[in-house]
Design a protein that fits this description.
Length: 229
């Protein structure tokens, strides 16, 4: 190229979901959300909370694509963040260095960010514990990133196998992280009470001695199962 590309491309304006819609997902388990979305929506299994006792969060997605070995885009996202946002930082699964540490997390906490999720690594574990901000990541490395770009903020990304866009709703707990696309958030929220009720009813039956699901019992007795003894 004749000229250097920009270090960052930032999409500043996007539609945020109403506060009451976000509130409908507070306290929802990721498992219930996945059930309400037909069995999908969770990031891959390696993205887990850095601290098991600080795993839960709910907020509005603010995306950034930092690329491998760089975190300029995270600072760009930080500059755009509003209270309650959750920064989703894609690194293309880079594992050569951390993409965030305790100082960046501390600044995010000061801005009211609800959590940071990355498909990359974190560092400064002792400092991060002191910040008390939910962090979900693939692991830890002491190696530090560059801060040069290129990167993007606010654009759609794929992170840990899940598509995400700024304005989506994201929920995390000890089981992982689930992204609820903005276009189906109202529908998913409306399904949550039924999902919770069904789960509670089945849990009560299991505690009462249930040994097998009725549907599986029927399947095992049907002509769809062939016994070879």
């Amino acid at each position: 190229m004749i000229t250097d590309p920009p270090a960052l491309r930032i999409r500043r304006h996007f539609v945020r979901p109403p506060a009451e819609l976000v509130a409908a997902f507070l306290g929802a388990s990721t498992g219930h959300l996945v059930d309400a979305m037909g069995g999908a929506g969770a990031m891959d299994a390696e993205v887990k909370p850095l601290e098991r006792n600080r795993a839960e969060f709910c907020g509005v997605v603010l995306t950034c694509d930092a690329g491998p070995g760089d975190n300029l885009a995270l600072f760009g996202a930080l500059a755009q963040a509003e209270p309650g946002d959750v920064i989703l930082a894609a690194t293309r699964d880079h594992r050569g260095c951390a993409v965030l540490g305790d100082l960046l997390a501390g600044m995010a906490k000061n801005r009211g960010v609800a959590a940071i999720v990355t498909d990359g690594l974190a560092r400064d574990v002792v400092g991060l514990e002191a910040v008390r901000l939910p962090i979900h990541c693939r692991g830890v490395s002491a190696n530090s990133p560059s801060r040069c770009g290129p990167g993007t903020v606010g654009r759609s990304i794929v992170i840990a196998g899940v598509a995400a866009a700024s304005g989506d709703i994201v929920v995390g707990d000890r089981d992982g992280v689930v992204v609820v696309p903005a276009g189906i958030a109202v529908e998913v929220a409306s399904k949550l009470p039924a999902v919770r009720a069904a789960e509670a009813a089945l849990e009560a039956r299991v505690k009462g001695g249930l040994q097998m699901l009725d549907a599986v019992t029927a399947m095992l007795a049907s002509d769809r199962v062939e016994y070879e003894d």
